[in-house]
Amino acid sequence: MDYAQSQRSWGKHAPSIALVVILHLGIGYALVTGLARKVVEVIKAPIETKIIEEIKKPPPDLPPPEINIQVPPVTPPPTITTVTTTPPPPGPPPVYTPAPPAPPQPAVRREYKATYCPRPSFPRQALREGITGTVVAHVHVAPTGAVTDVRILRSTNRMFDREVIRAMSQCKYAPEAVGFIGEYEIEFKLQD
Fold this sequence. Notes:
Elements: H1 3-7, H2 10-33, H3 35-44, E1 108-110, H4 124-129, E2 133-141, E3 147-155, H5 161-168, E4 180-188
Parallel strand pairs: 1-4
Antiparallel strand pairs: 2-3, 2-4
């Protein structure tokens, strides 16, 4: 037997149906005999109210306590009575300390050869519009040979800057004792 067939069985639903029929018969009986009317009459009956005043207690006959407050004596601040006209003796002369030397700037190397450096790709928008240009960038290289920063010095069209920074950030150099700055000029030309 399937699920739908078992749910259509009268035997399962007979108690629920009987309860609903009995509930309806009870409500019909209450309406016919006037039970509801008797409830309304009880509610309409007058309600008796009384106002009751609060009984106040008489105040106790106790005198208020004495309070003694000790006030400390006020002494006036001391006054200066003598005035000197001689200036104080001069202090020691100021000591000159030279400023610490500025950290040495890394050397700038032009077109320095990297062990690995991907070529910047031509931006699609520049290809579509037929735009060429040149970008000059500084690549900051740590002693480990890793690129720490790429800065654009000059650019004929800002469209190329993002691609130069992306490509030059991936460059690798041979490790050295001191880092350096590499200066590179990248030309973007349309090829036939």
